[in-house]
Write a structure and sequence with these properties.
alpha/beta, Rossmann fold, 6-stranded mixed sheet, 10 helices, 10 strands, globular
């Protein structure tokens, strides 16, 4: 596997207050990595900095061998098209007045990819890839006509329609019941495997991270305090904070 994303000494501050400090991260093609931690740990800020939604205070973000900070606007835009973010709340992230087919095709419209008929075909393929089948039964529905799990699958389809190389999934199972959470993380694992897609999974749930990701990085107060193979971190944590997350995930104290 080749390195797709390199985050080096990343720090982010808001109004002078540090939110992320000296985070280092390597993600290879086809690899799934989880950033785990409680609320305020800084994990979502890392994802948003990678996606270009918040500016780093210092450090480097290198995608496909190119430093995003020094890339030209045109190159940066093309590189950003190779990554897509899925947010935690499908109720808020899907436009309520748009039909599912148009929602999924929207990134292709924005980036001027393909013809209208080609965009619709791509939307159908993306819906099929996230197991909303038959896709023709979903394209003309509105978000309020779908269940929470179906809405989140639509969000994944929209993220995948431009065939990105990196998926940034920010708490994608938040608000879903236990069985749907497992369905969504299993879907991410399947997508990573079948589409050679790198996944950065942001979550507070260490058990789900261990189920879906190869590597786990635990964050506390803006810093990475533990990193390792997901199964090893989950069964034999070395940091006190990680042990507390495991206890919360397993119901042991």
């Amino acid at each position: 596997m080749s390195i797709l994303l390199e985050v080096e000494s990343l720090s982010v501050a808001f109004d002078g207050a540090p939110a992320v400090s000296d985070v280092n991260l390597l993600v290879s093609t086809g690899e799934s990595i989880a950033l785990v931690g409680g609320s305020g740990a800084g994990k979502s800020t890392v994802a948003r900095a990678i996606a270009g939604l918040v500016p780093p205070t210092s450090g480097r973000i290198v995608f496909d061998g190119i430093d995003l900070a020094t890339a030209s606007r045109r190159t940066g835009r093309a590189l950003r098209r190779g990554m897509h973010m899925v947010f935690q709340d499908p109720y808020a992230s899907l436009p309520p007045g748009m039909r599912v087919g148009n929602i999924v095709a929207e990134p292709m419209v924005i980036h001027r990819i393909g013809t209208r008929s080609g965009q619709r075909d791509a939307a159908l393929d993306a819906l099929e890839s996230v197991r909303l089948t038959p896709a023709a039964d979903f394209v003309d529905r509105y978000p309020h006509e779908l269940s929470g799990g179906q809405r989140q699958r639509v969000a994944f389809a929209r993220a995948l329609v431009t065939r990105p190389r990196l998926l940034l999934a920010d708490e994608p199972t938040s608000g879903l019941d236990a069985s749907l959470r497992i369905e969504i993380v299993d879907l991410m694992s399947e997508l990573a495997r079948t589409q050679d897609l790198a996944v950065l999974h942001i979550t507070h749930d260490l058990a789900l991270a261990a189920r879906s990701c190869d590597t786990v990085m635990v964050m506390q107060d803006g810093r990475v305090v533990e990193k390792g193979d997901s199964a090893e971190v989950f069964t034999a944590p070395s940091h006190q904070y990680t042990a507390a997350l495991v206890a919360a995930a397993t119901g042991t104290h």
